[in-house]
Amino acid sequence: MSEIEYRVAEGAYADAMVELEHLCFPNLGGDDLLTVEGILLQEAVFPEGAFIALDGDRVIGMGSGIFVDYEISQPQHHMADVVGHEGVGNHDPDGDWYYGIDIAVHPDYRGRGIASKLYQLRKQVVIDHNKRGIIAGGVIPGFVNHKHEMTAAEYVEEVAAGRLVDATLTAQIRNGFEVRGVIADYVQDPTSDNWASFIVWFNPWYRDDETDDDNRHPEEE
Fold first, then answer.
1. Which residues pair with 102 in a beta bridge?
2. Which residues, in sequence order, are bridge partners of residue 179?
3. Which helix (H) or strand (E) holds 79?
4. Per residue in 72-101, pLDDT tens?
5. Distance (Å, rounded) from C-alpha 132 to C-alpha 95?
6. CATH superfamily of this structure's domain 5-207
């Protein structure tokens, strides 16, 4: 088994990253997928916010995101409205949260801990910059098998409770994320009727001189 290398994403890999994104998210609308322009802008604006996993010179995993200000008590939003032009237009170096845009792993490489490593790299960026944590909307691919018998909110609740398994959400929970609700019309995904989960990872090392009750981790109360 070859050793996987992880590094900050570079524009030279932009075409391969776009190809991987389309492979991993075949049901998403084109407006919700990364573009070469967006990847190049990320490299210029916030390079340390995006990572790739390489098997030799082959891109087999990636993750990207930006810093934003966001009120986590209000999960409803559309991804494009938060991230802005080409996924990086609303990057704010002073933003309290890292907004996770995507995590993608080639199907042939899943089950090898690559996504978990990409999440760890994100967490380290958050820790290094003393941000509150990571927020994201997560696709729920397993909902297609249950949407005729329960709502998206019920499905996400069942997954969070461990009574159902979702390929994406279950892995996110195992990586320390908390489910904070569901998002309607998050992205264009007809298989899930455009629903997504709203997940949060709280940085346990975050330092704040002032108490913010709305954004404070429950364990701190």
1. 64
2. 199
3. helix 79-83
4. 999 999 999 999 999 999 999 999 999 999
5. 9
6. Gcn5-related N-acetyltransferase (GNAT) (3.40.630.30)
